[in-house]
Amino acid sequence: MALIECVELTHVYLKGTPMETEALRGITLSIDEGEFVGIIGPTGSGKSTLIQHFDALLRPTSGTVRVGGVDIGDPKTNLRAIRRQVGLVFQYPEHQLFEETIFEDVAFGPRNLGLPEDEVRQRVEDALRAVRVDPEKFGRRSPFSISGGEMRRVAIAGVLAMAPQVLVLDEPAAGLDPQGKVEILNRIRDLHRSRHITVILITHSMDEAAQLVRRLIVLNQGQVAMDGPVREVFARGEELTAMGLGVPAITELLQRLRRRGIPVRADAVTPDEAPRAIKEALAWS
Fold first, then answer.
1. Is the pTM of this model over 0.70?
2. How do residues 46-72 score in pLDDT, each as one tens digit?
3. In this structure, is residue 236 part of a structural domain?
4. CA distance 128 to 187
5. Element (H or E) spanning 8, and its range?
6. Nearest one of 9, 3, 56, 10 to 31, comparing CA atoms
7. Residues of the domain holding 97
8. Helix 274-284 and helix 249-259: axis angle, to 10°?
9. How would you list the strands of the sheet with 2-13, edge to edge?
10. Tell me: the pLDDT tens digits for 140-166?
């Protein structure tokens, strides 16, 4: 079942002014319930503009966007209801933390829904545990007294506490140290597996995309340039490189081996797959 559908979506900023800019042009795609989708593209390709249509922060200049079958462009649409379905986590979400304690910060959204306090507490505890933050240990601490990676996870918990059907993350590992990146990406993978929610991930890292998502949408100059399974997209390495993107490091290594005459298959995209591909090639040599 399609949770998000875009049909000929076009978005123009500052329409009718000298600064008019067409950010998206003729985008048609659908994202189904339970998918883990990556969105990649060069800077300025329209990635952030696209995802802001998913929770109705932006409305189409032309075309249609439906969330859960509801047209966000319809003046009668309840946009607050749409935003409860789609949780959007911008880059550096920890900058949005503001309450005195971690518990109160994560509770802010559920309380605004008018939920009873016992349900608020349960949602906060469940959301914190989902991102591996112990509510007993951390709940009363200031969100500004913990590490950058922990702050990032707390900010994501604040979105999860709203119980969205779709979680959209814009560069969730940006600015973190290597250990922090591993932790946040592992938590995102765990969330998809345990909660079975639809996850949409914007990333500039081809390696992150290869290790996490199952389907890739490639944007270029405001249009969908590619859309398909990860392996199929990364098999088009020359086209991706021409856009300024490239392929995962493992894929690049195997492609170089092939160019040197080693008959290794070049469709491996993760470090776990590379040794097997090389072993198979050596067995055939």
1. yes
2. 999 999 999 999 999 999 999 999 999
3. yes
4. 11
5. strand 2-13
6. 3
7. 2-247
8. 10
9. 21-32, 2-13, 62-67, 70-71
10. 999 999 998 899 999 999 999 999 999
Q: How far is CA 135 from CA 99, 122, 123, 149, 233, in A?
A: 15, 10, 11, 16, 40
CATH code of the domain containing 184: 3.40.50.300
Residue 272 within any structural domain of the chain: no
Residue whose structure tokens are 């920890």: 94
Tokens of 151: 């702050």
Residue pair 263/282 in contact (Cβ under 8 Å)? The answer is: no
Q: How would you label 204-236 residue by residue, b for 16+ Cβ within 10 Å and e otherwise?
A: ebbbbbbbbbebbbbbbebebbbbeebbebbbe
Domain tally, the chain: 1
Residue pair 209/33 in contact by the 8 Å Cβ criterion: no
Q: Would 27 be classed as within a structural domain?
A: yes
**Residues whose CB is less than 8 angstroms from the CB of residue 44 and which lie 6 or more positions away in sequence, other chains included:** none
d(CA 210, CA 214): 8
Contact call for residues 186 and 194 (beta carbons, < 8 A): no
Please give the structure tokens belonging to residue 237: 């390495």
Answer yes or no: is 265 within a domain.
Answer: no
- The overall average pLDDT reported for the chain is 91
- At residue 242, the pLDDT reads 94
The H or E element containing residue 153 is helix 148-160
- Residues 277, 264: contact at Cβ < 8 Å? yes
Task: For residue 31, give both structure tokens.
Answer: 């994202």
Residue 218 three-state SS: strand
